[in-house]
Structures are given as structure tokens and as C-alpha cells.
């Protein structure tokens, strides 16, 4: 059962609307005492968050397995270690992040004497709304930012990860200040109630459709938002790309098996998406047309090596840690892409399927630029699963044009033997991040901002950017009475200009 009490996972209970009212008040009271702002309080709660994870690692693995069938190794790599990394950085840096920043250097001469500086203050109680595919890190990395900034926080966890949500709801008040941090479970009703209230800041991770609902609700209370959204992250394969390396790096990120021999950064993960800390899955490939068939051949060989077909025990159907698609709806959507492609003679590789466990290997569809609008939406929708379109294009300019005609992606990947090709692409396109010759790793670099642009979201976090997200940067000037002779210059009537000194 997804919600059972076995294995020490508490039962999933929806937070009542009365509880939401109560905790909103408690957290705001806590904030108004100012106690969340001290360095000691921030460090205490950051460290407690690390202990929460360390002490309960096994239970967290169990919960994530129950939610989405993700194995322990993948859970550590993609969900838990990135949080520990963030905590580690925050604990070491928060004291310096909190400090006032002097702005004396670029000030005009007359302002230099006024001690121009930026004071950092927490914005207020934060609302963090997260999703199911990385249920821990998408919730707790934003929390690291909020704690660092001195903000209390409400964590609205996803109803699609009930075991993780229930476990976090049990653990958080035991480890962190229960009057400073709360978990809210539930779905639309609970989130809607939360969104009616003013907050210091809202950080939402999830699909763009709900992102619009969040932004519209936040507009009513003038609450600032960070939106971490989805979309299609493209791969460009240039004519001088090493196809073998490209295929290996790409598929080892797109879908991994339990077998660690394959430089497994993460496992199975049809759900690898756009997650924050490890991987931002490649969605489709634009390949220079002369190389298209060779690339497809190399891709198929790579897939056969990485995920040998059954009856091999290494088939994704048998590897114990291979994860499943979230629900039959997602599986059916994948199967409809595959079916459409097959009917159009475009299916060039078919992933193995086990309906019962909702496991599906990677399928490849060779399509073309004219196929937009066909294929059940493969070229339009965020695939968010193991079907990849491969689209031959005339040249790099055509690939750039294709990307620029669509919503800005969260991540962009350029595979090329020449760095200049990468430079050209990143100069001429906009995306949340860009990586030359590998996939997903930009999200691991904890001191790089993580965020999208346009349809892939706005704002960013991770590391210092997380701190800044929840921090108000207050402009401060000091103009003591002793400056009166200077100030007197501006006193009306201005006909006296210059005479009063
Ligand atoms: P989801 O269904 O878990 O929804 C996300 C959150 O929104 C949940 O907490 C849910 O309760 C809430 N919600 C849902 N409907 C709502 C409504 N009508 N009103 C108010 N709140 C509502 O997640 P999902 O949308 O299936 O997530 C998958 C999407 O998230 C994909 O598009 C993926 O690309 C994106 N994603 C982005 C990132 C990132 O960091 N940029 C990371 C992970 C996932």
C-alpha cells in the first residue's frame, strides 16, 4: 500500500484547514519575536535538518521507495546528499551572508560619508510548495534557504508522495523548532487556503499550469514568488560531436538502472525531471541531419548495453531498484506517444514495458520539424518520461531557431567537439542553465543559481541565491545632524540656494 503503516512510515493524514489557520498564526508569532533571526537559531535549525536526514536515512529510503519506487542509492544521490551539501555550505557561510554589505565603493563622493550599505533582513514567514518527483530535496533545499535567511517556513508537500510527506510531517517538529517550521499535507484545497494568505515569500516547484495559479494568488496579497517550473529541455548534437560519449552521458542521466557500473549518478528515474540538485532531464534532441542516422544507431547500441533486454537479469524490468512511472495516466501518455510514432513509422527504438510495475524503458522517435502538432503532443508537451524525440536539423542555426521559437527551457545541452559551437548557442538562446557535453550537472553545483526563465520559471535559489531569495535587501543610509551644512543646500526657498551654508 502506498499509505500503509508498515515499515515505520506513519499514516498519511491531510492537514485540516483549522490546523492551517493555527500554524499560520504560530509561525507569524514566532517571526514577530525576532528569535528566528539570530545566527544561533539559524545554525541550530540547519544542523538539526542534517540530523533529521542522517538519523532517519533508512526510513526516508523506505518512504521514497513506497512513493515512487526509487532505490536507496538513487535516493541518496538525487534527493538526500544534495540537501546535505546545501546545509554544509549554508552552515559555513550563513554568518557572512547575513552581514551588512558596505556600498561605499561605487557611491558618489557625497554619499560615501553616509555609510551606504545593504542590511539583510528575513522577508517573513515563507511558503514552500513542492512536488513529488524529488520529494525531499525539492522541499528541503528551499527550506535551507529560508532557515539561512531567518524565515520561518511552511512546507506544503505533494499529495503524490504521501509516504515522504507523512514521514516529514512526523520528523520536522521533532528536529526543528516546531513553532518556526511546519509541514502541511493535502492537495488543492489546502494549497488554496495557504495561497489566500500573505507571506514573506512563496517558492513553488511544479508544473507551469499550477505555477500560474500560484502567481495569480500571490498577486492578490502582493507576495513575491519564485517559480521553479518545467518544460522541454533540448539537446543539440553538432556534426563534430562524439556520438558515443553523447549517448552514454545522455542515457546515463535520462534513465539509470540499479547497476552502479554505469557511472550511475542516479537510478531509474523516468521521473528525472528538472529537479533542483541533480538532474534536469534532456527532453528531445536536435541533431545535425548528416549525423542523425548514425546517432540513432549509437543510441540504440548504448541503450542495449546499458539496459540489456529481458530475459537478461539486467533488464529494467527486473533490476530491483528500477523505478516506475508515477501512475497509469503517465504510463498511458508514454504509450500513446509510442503508438503514434509506430503508426507513423517513426519509432526507432522501443523500451521494454511491464504494465504491472509501470516500468518502461527508453523509446526513441525519429521525427522531423514538420511533425509539430502530430504525434499526440510529443513535440509540444513536456514529456517527463522515457520517450525521446530525435529531430534532424540542417545546421546549428536551425537548431537555435527552433529553440528560440518555443518557451525558454530550464536546461539546455550542447554536445559538440568544439567549444565555439557551445559559445554560439548559449549566446543566441535563453535557458535556465546550459551545459557543454554533459547533462544535469549544473544543478549539482551548489553555488550556481538554479532557476528558469520565462515559462521554465522565475527567480532562482540554491546556495547564496537561496539565502537571497528569502532575504530583503534593505538600503540603509545614515545622515547625522553634523551634515546639516550640506543638507541645508536643498532647503526651500531655493532662491536661497547656496546662501544658507
Ligand atoms: P504536483 O502535482 O505535486 O503539484 C505541485 C504542487 O502544487 C503540490 O504541492 C500540489 O498540492 C499543488 N497543487 C496542485 N494543483 C493545485 C491547484 N490547482 N492549486 C493549488 N495548488 C495545487 O506536481 P506536478 O505539477 O505533477 O509536478 C511535475 C512538474 O513539476 C513537471 O512539470 C516538472 O517539470 C516540474 N518540476 C520542476 C522542478 C524544478 O525545479 N524546476 C522540479 C521538479 C518538478
Automatic annotation (TrEMBL):
One annotated GO biological process: aldehyde metabolic process
GO CC entries: cytoplasm
Boundaries of every Aldehyde dehydrogenase domain copy: 15-476
Active site, per annotation: 228
UniProt xrefs under InterPro entries: Ald_DH/histidinol_DH (IPR016161), Ald_DH_C (IPR016163), Ald_DH_CS_GLU (IPR029510), Ald_DH_N (IPR016162), Aldehyde_DH_dom (IPR015590), Aldehyde_DH_NAD(P) (IPR012394)
Keywords per UniProt: Membrane, Oxidoreductase, Transmembrane, Transmembrane helix
GO molecular function, one term: aldehyde dehydrogenase (NAD+) activity
Family, per entry: Belongs to the aldehyde dehydrogenase family.
This protein's name: Aldehyde dehydrogenase domain-containing protein
The species this protein was found in: Kwoniella dendrophila CBS 6074
Amino acid at each position: 500500500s502506498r499509505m500503509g503503516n508498515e515499515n515505520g512510515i506513519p499514516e498519511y493524514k491531510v492537514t485540516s484547514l483549522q490546523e492551517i489557520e493555527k500554524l499560520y498564526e504560530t509561525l507569524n508569532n514566532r517571526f514577530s519575536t525576532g528569535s528566528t533571526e539570530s545566527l544561533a537559531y539559524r545554525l541550530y535549525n540547519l544542523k538539526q535538518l542534517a540530523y533529521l536526514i542522517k538519523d532517519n536515512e533508512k526510513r526516508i529510503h523506505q518512504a521514497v521507495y513506497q512513493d515512487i519506487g526509487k532505490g536507496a542509492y538513487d535516493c541518496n544521490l538525487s534527493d538526500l546528499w544534495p540537501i546535505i551539501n546545501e546545509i554544509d555550505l549554508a552552515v559555513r557561510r550563513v554568518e557572512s551572508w547575513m552581514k551588512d554589505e558596505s556600498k561605499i565603493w561605487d557611491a558618489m563622493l557625497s554619499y560615501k560619508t553616509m555609510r551606504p550599505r545593504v542590511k539583510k533582513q528575513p522577508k517573513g514567514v515563507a511558503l514552500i510548495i513542492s512536488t513529488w518527483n524529488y520529494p525531499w530535496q525539492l522541499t528541503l533545499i528551499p527550506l535551507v534557504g529560508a532557515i539561512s535567511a531567518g524565515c520561518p517556513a511552511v512546507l506544503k508537500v505533494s499529495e503524490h508522495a504521501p509516504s515522504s510527506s507523512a514521514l516529514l510531517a512526523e520528523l520536522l517538529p521533532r528536529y526543528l523548532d516546531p513553532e518556526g517550521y511546519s509541514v502541511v499535507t493535502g492537495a488543492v484545497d489546502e494549497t488554496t487556503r495557504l495561497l489566500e494568505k500573505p507571506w514573506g515569500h512563496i517558492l513553488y516547484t511544479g508544473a507551469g499550469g499550477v505555477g500560474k495559479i500560484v502567481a495569480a494568488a500571490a498577486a492578490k496579497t502582493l507576495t513575491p514568488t519564485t517559480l521553479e517550473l518545467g518544460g522541454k529541455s533540448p539537446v543539440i548534437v553538432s556534426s563534430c560531436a562524439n556520438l558515443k560519449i553523447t549517448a552514454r552521458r545522455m542515457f546515463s542521466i535520462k534513465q539509470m538502472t540499479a547497476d552502479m557500473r554505469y557511472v550511475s549518478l542516479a537510478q531509474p528515474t523516468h521521473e528525472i525531471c528538472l529537479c533542483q540538485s541533480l538532474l534536469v532531464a534532456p527532453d528531445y534532441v536536435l541533431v545535425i541531419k548528416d549525423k542523425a542516422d548514425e546517432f540513432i544507431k549509437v543510441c540504440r547500441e548504448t541503450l542495449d548495453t546499458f539496459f540489456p533486454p529481458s530475459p537478461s537479469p539486467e533488464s529494467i524490468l527486473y533490476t530491483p531498484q528500477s523505478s516506475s512511472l508515477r501512475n497509469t495516466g503517465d504510463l498511458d501518455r508514454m504509450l500513446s506517444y509510442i503508438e503514434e510514432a509506430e503508426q507513423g513509422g517513426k519509432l526507432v527504438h522501443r523500451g521494454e514495458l511491464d504494465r504491472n510495475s509501470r516500468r518502461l524503458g527508453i523509446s526513441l522517435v525519429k521525427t522531423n520539424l514538420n511533425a509539430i502538432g502530430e504525434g499526440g503532443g510529443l513535440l509540444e508537451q513536456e514529456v517527463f518520461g522515457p520517450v525521446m524525440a530525435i529531430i534532424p536539423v540542417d545546421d546549428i542555426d536551425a537548431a537555435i531557431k527552433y529553440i528560440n521559437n518555443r518557451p525558454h527551457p530550464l536546461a539546455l545541452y550542447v554536445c559538440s567537439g568544439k567549444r565555439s559551437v557551445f559559445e554560439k548557442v548559449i549566446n543566441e538562446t535563453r535557458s535556465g542553465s546550459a551545459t557543454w557535453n554533459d547533462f544535469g550537472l549544473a544543478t549539482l553545483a551548489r553555488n550556481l543559481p538554479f532557476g528558469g526563465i520565462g515559462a521554465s520559471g522565475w527567480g532562482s535559489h540554491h546556495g547564496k541565491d537561496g539565502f537571497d531569495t528569502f532575504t530583503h535587501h534593505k538600503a540603509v543610509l545614515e545622515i547625522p545632524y553634523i551634515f546639516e551644512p550640506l543638507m541645508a543646500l536643498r532647503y526651500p526657498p531655493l532662491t536661497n540656494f547656496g546662501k544658507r551654508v
